[in-house]
Design a protein that fits this description.
Elements lengths: L1 E6 L8 H15 L3 E7 L5 E2 L2 E6 L1 E4 L2 E7 L3 H10 L3 E5 L4 H12 L3 E4 L4 H7 L5 H14 L2 E4 L2 H8 L6 E3 L16 H8 L6 E6 L20 E6 L5 H7 L4 E4 L3 H10 L2 E3 L9 H8 L4 E4 L4 H4 L7 E3 L6 H10 L2 H15 L4 H16 L1 H8 L1
Parallel strand pairs: 1-2, 1-7, 2-4, 7-8, 8-9, 9-10, 11-12, 11-14, 12-13, 14-15, 15-16
Antiparallel strand pairs: 3-4, 5-6
Helix pairs in contact: 1-14, 2-3, 4-5, 10-13
GO molecular function: hexosyltransferase activity
Protein name: Glycosyltransferase family 1 protein
Pfam families: Glyco_transf_4 (PF13439), Glycos_transf_1 (PF00534)
């Protein structure tokens, strides 16, 4: 099969979209398929053996390190030259819309993967365009041959925009990387040495308004913890001023990230506009109890009281109170942490991408669409 992936983000940007695209490409290559990538400039021109067609981009206002792809005739030329069997649209908004238009002109079926709540993203940056963004997102996904959503909350959101052909397609977790065995007691001890007996409570992710990291200072007054903040982004400087006692590690990857995850005592996520929330899976795989908002993607990932705790993001003090509950209950931390690896043990990236290759791509191919319609 020949698969063209048009993505809103790829290396050197590191985020959920880039991560999932990387795993899709890796698995496609492992199974002998041919791949073309189309992504915003700048960046590498080849990933492994896969050519990456880079198109013109502009920096997003308020987030200068995130380029947004612009309409470019190179997209249709690249697709026409590659002659794909299917076009994979990764989190289509700007460049993805161009890829969708090109695929329709060329008569190539398109699978759209919904991954980013752009309306919620805009709201956190003070842009009052949620209704207009919703109409645009709905239009893109209604015109795709099939839309894949990562959670029931996302499915409900797109259904409300009039999108009908919706299918759950979740995300994998690198079980060979993340696990309780990665815990480094000495690392945990370094974090908490200022207060013997305290716990390391960590956040991992982009430090940006759309992640609602402005809630992290709620934990500053909570005794018995040392806050560990992993990641980077436009909110980092503000957080460092508000949380002078916290440990900021910057962005981490690979084994360094896996060791930090496993060495935490509690993992906290603050974002309530998450369509999925990959870091929750990684914390669960690491055997770390999770605290997450009762909204969006986390509702599918956290079984409250069994694999983590959910807090009410609309209730003042709920985040702090929920973390305090875990900090004060060793047995609850142990129980939730032990349940995490079991909850994700079947969510390998190979399994997830094989579903894409074996089920969702074939479903939109011309012969199969005719058979399904009959």
């Amino acid at each position: 099969m020949r698969v063209a992936i048009v993505t809103e983000s790829f290396f050197p940007q590191v985020n959920g979209v880039t991560n999932s695209v990387r795993h899709v490409v890796d698995r496609l290559l492992e199974r002998g398929h041919e791949v073309l990538l189309v992504a915003p400039a700048p960046g590498l021109a080849v990933y492994r053996s896969v050519p990456v067609v880079r198109v013109r981009s502009v920096a997003m206002p308020g987030y200068r390190t995130f380029p947004v792809g612009l309409p470019d005739r190179a997209v249709e030329r690249a697709l026409a030259d590659f002659r794909p069997d299917v076009v994979h649209l990764a989190s289509p908004i700007a460049l993805g819309a161009v890829g969708l238009r090109a695929s329709r002109r060329l008569g190539v079926p398109a699978v759209a993967v919904y991954q980013t709540d752009i309306g919620g993203f805009a709201r956190q940056y003070g842009v009052r365009a949620e209704a207009a963004v919703g109409r645009w997102v709905g239009r893109i996904h209604r015109r795709a041959d099939r839309t894949l959503v990562p959670s029931t909350a996302s499915r409900d959101q797109l259904a409300g925009l009039g999108v009908t052909d919706l299918h759950l397609w979740r995300r994998g977790v690198a079980l060979g990387l993340f696990g309780p065995q990665r815990r480094v007691p000495e690392l945990n001890a370094r974090w908490t040495r200022h207060e013997p007996g305290s716990l390391a409570v960590g956040y991992v992710g982009r430090l940006a308004p759309e992640k609602q990291v402005a809630r992290l200072p709620e934990l500053a007054s909570l005794g018995g913890i040392r806050l560990v903040v992993v990641g980077d982004g436009p909110s980092r400087a503000s957080l460092e001023r508000q949380l002078p006692a916290a440990k900021f590690t910057g962005m981490l990857r690979g084994q360094d990230l896996a060791q930090v995850f496993a060495s935490l005592d509690v993992f906290v996520h603050t974002g309530q506009a998450e369509t999925f929330c990959q870091t929750i899976q990684e914390a669960q795989a690491s055997g770390v109890p999770v605290v997450a908002p009762a909204a969006g993607g986390p509702l599918d990932l956290v079984d409250h009281g069994r694999t983590g705790l959910l807090y009410d993001p609309a209730a003042p003090g709920s985040l702090r109170d929920t973390v305090a509950r875990l900090v004060g209950d060793h047995e609850l931390r142990r129980t939730l942490g032990a349940a995490g690896p079991a909850a994700v043990r079947n969510r390998t990236w190979a399994t997830v991408v094989d579903e894409l290759i074996d089920v969702h791509y074939p479903a939109v191919l011309p012969g199969n669409r005719t058979a399904l319609a009959a």
